[in-house]
Amino acid sequence: MTKDILVIGAGISGITAAVEAAETGYSVILVEKNPYLGGRVVQMNRYFPKLCPPYCGMEINLKRIRTNNKIRHYTLSEVQGITGNEGNYEVTIKVNPRFVNEKCTACGECSLVCPSERRDEFNLGIGTTKAAYLPHEMAFPYRYAIDAAACSKCGACVDACKYGAINLQMQPETIKLNVASIVMATGWQPYDAGKIDNLGFGKYKDVITNMMMERLAAPNGQTQGKILCPSDQKEPKKVAFVQCAGSRDENHLPYCSAVCCLASLKQITYVRENIPDSEVYMFYIDVRTPGKYEEFYTRVKGDDKVHFIKGKVADVQQDGNGLTVVAEDILSGNKARVTVDMVVLACGMQPTLKDSPSVGIKTDENGFIDHNQNKGIYAAGVSRKPQDVSSSVQDATGCSLKAIQSVVRG
Ligand SMILES: Cc1cc2nc3c(=O)[nH]c(=O)nc-3n(C[C@H](O)[C@H](O)[C@H](O)COP(=O)(O)OP(=O)(O)OC[C@H]3O[C@@H](n4cnc5c(N)ncnc54)[C@H](O)[C@@H]3O)c2cc1C
Q: Which residues in the chain land under pLDDT 50?
């Protein structure tokens, strides 16, 4: 019988589950669909509430993976199907080609000669990269990849690579794994702001999402950390944050994503630090900052250039003066109309499994996984419910113990 534990998804939850089980002596296989480990948190500029860069903690976790021979990891890999029972699951995984092997030194010559461009996924479409690209500057593994969909197969990168690291003939592989238990840590994707008709995303360039704001403010982003309006590359002097953009709305996401208020409060500090003469407006239904996070809210509220307006935004319109945000101001009873240079939509977290039912895991109607329905399969982090990083880490540590118990029972 197998004793291996499979962890699907290598965000902070999957990485935590993997290292906790491996450091207890169990063999773990960690499967990630991106060309790098780390998930969404490596796209963040800073973490609330301490406002430290996420790489401080992530680097320690990646070292725990690098130095532990009980963990095997696969990138660019996706689960295609799961069959079997607790103690004896058969899992089919498709490993997509990277076209770049471990001889890569990340010298970047391939990218310099590459003639093709692709959307910069890591930066949420703010800018482009070459088809031969390093996923991001702290990527693990620290190795280039070639995007097959964008590559013209001209071969210039093969000729430019002094290390023989590129092979454009690599093919996808299918591997079958036999494992005793599975930790699902497939996380989330941002809710598609283009589906919200009244808030102007996709129509007006300076209406951006909260994840785009993370990448605008990040020193390793396309603007090197300068918060600039996409329309004219100028600093916005007035910025509106629109809470519950799609969340708590039966037409979009019926639930609260739990972190968006805190994410916006954090991003308000990015704007106020980057642009000291800026003014910020936050439109909210309720500001949700549970437990210890209340102090962070109080701190941001103490800034007299930050204005809170209680009311659901009805409309965002653009004219020659900028973007006007329209809402009922519930506390004053008046209609609020505030004209700003940039609007940031606080879009919620939607579980990634919502879009891949083929995996064979039971989820609730919103796509979150309930462990009780899937014996021997445990869900950690945002694949189970919307939560922040520290709660995801605790959740994943608990899942690791559950996965070990399945191995022992099996
Ligand atoms: C705008 C914004 C800002 C935030 N800022 C903070 C903050 O400052 N502090 C904080 O505590 N929290 C913050 N959060 C919440 C934080 O992002 C989450 O708590 C965290 O990402 C949860 O990690 P996770 O590992 O569960 O999911 P993810 O980070 O989504 O990782 C899941 C991983 O699984 C992979 N995956 C998905 N499907 C498959 C598959 N089928 N096969 C293989 N791999 C797969 C994905 O590629 C990804 O790498 C923020 C959220 C938002 C929306």
A: none
